[in-house]
């Protein structure tokens, strides 16, 4: 679902009541673990974490006026989605996440290229997400991003 929010607090205030606690906890987990330099805000209609223009003035190549996206989450119709660009861009991080996931969850991983879907809110692996959020610095993300852009 798409919400017209102006801040993370505004976004969470608009989601169905039964999802609010999970989203507050997910937001706190990410904020407590994300390396310094990333900023939180609303990006692409979701709560997003990105490299601000003050650190990376070029912004996102598709939309340079947007800061470089890194991680985000959203309340979708049938699940909560977590997006992590580092998983998409760095195979070692993807492999690590896939191997760790069964240690934290009893159900099968439901994942796209950068999207992890959680249909049962009580089974969101907050500890694992916190560890994932901590695994890549701003500088590492910029280097991986630039390397992948130059390859194309």
Write structural notes for this entry.
The protein has 6 helices and 5 strands. The chain is an alpha+beta fold and 152 residues long. It is globular, with a radius of gyration of 15 Å.
Distance between the termini: 32 Å
What is the gyration radius calculated from CA atoms?
15 Å
The percentage helix is: 40-55%
Number of strands: 5
Query: Which descriptor suits the 3D outline?
Result: globular
> How many helices in DSSP terms?
6
Derived structural class: alpha+beta
| Adjacency order of strands in the biggest sheet | 1-2-3-4-5
The biggest sheet amounts to:
5 strands, antiparallel
What is the beta-strand fraction?
Answer: 15-25%
Mean pLDDT score, rounded? Answer: 95
Low-pLDDT runs: none
| Helix-strand sequence | HHEEEEHHEHH
What is the secondary structure topology, with strand pairs?
Elements: H1 8-14, H2 17-33, E1 39-43, E2 46-51, E3 68-75, E4 80-84, H3 85-89, H4 91-104, E5 115-118, H5 126-134, H6 138-151
Antiparallel strand pairs: 1-2, 2-3, 3-4, 4-5
Helix pairs in contact: 2-5
Give a quick precis of the structure.
It is built from 6 helices and 5 strands, in the order H-H-E-E-E-E-H-H-E-H-H.
Task: Summarize this structure as a short list of keywords or feature phrases.
152 residues, alpha+beta, 6 helices, 5 strands
